[in-house]
Write a structure and sequence with these properties.
Layout (H helix, E strand, L loop, with lengths): L2 H10 L1 H35 L10 E2 L8 H6 L4 E2 L1 H28 L7
Antiparallel strand pairs: 1-2
C-alpha cells in the first residue's frame, strides 16, 4: 500500500474526523469560557476581594514601583504577572469542571449491554 493510499485511509477514518471536530469545538468552547471568566466571574471575585483586579496584579523584579502592569512593561521592567496566572488557573478549573460534567452526563446516558 502506497503512502498516499495509507494517508487517505487515515484522513477519512472516523477518529481523524472526530479529532478535527473536537479541536474546532474546543476552540469555540474556550472562547465561551474566557468570556464567562473575564466578564462574569472575575468581577464577582473582584467584589468579594475588595475590588482587586487580578489581571493587573504583578510584582516588579527591579524593585521599582509602577502604577500599572502596562507602565511596568512599557518601562521594560522584569515583572512577575501573577494575576494572569490566577486568571488562567480559574479558567482551567472551569474548563476541567465543564468537561467532567459533560463526560459524566454522556456516561450516564450510555446504555449498558445486557449480560446473559
Amino acid at each position: 500500500m502506497g503512502m498516499m493510499q495509507e494517508f487517505r485511509e487515515f484522513a477519512v477514518k472516523g477518529n481523524a474526523i472526530d479529532l478535527a471536530v473536537g479541536v474546532v469545538i474546543g476552540a469555540a468552547f474556550g472562547k465561551i469560557v474566557n468570556s464567562i471568566v473575564n466578564d462574569m466571574l472575575m468581577p464577582i471575585v473582584g467584589v468579594l476581594t475588595g475590588g482587586i483586579d487580578f489581571k493587573g496584579r504583578f510584582y516588579a523584579l527591579d524593585g521599582e514601583k509602577y502604577e500599572t502592569l502596562e507602565k511596568a512593561l512599557a518601562a521594560k521592567a522584569p515583572v512577575l504577572g501573577y494575576g494572569n496566572l490566577i486568571q488562567s488557573i480559574l479558567e482551567f478549573v472551569i474548563v476541567a469542571f465543564a468537561i467532567f460534567m459533560m463526560v459524566r452526563t454522556i456516561n450516564r446516558m450510555r446504555v449498558e449491554p445486557v449480560k446473559k
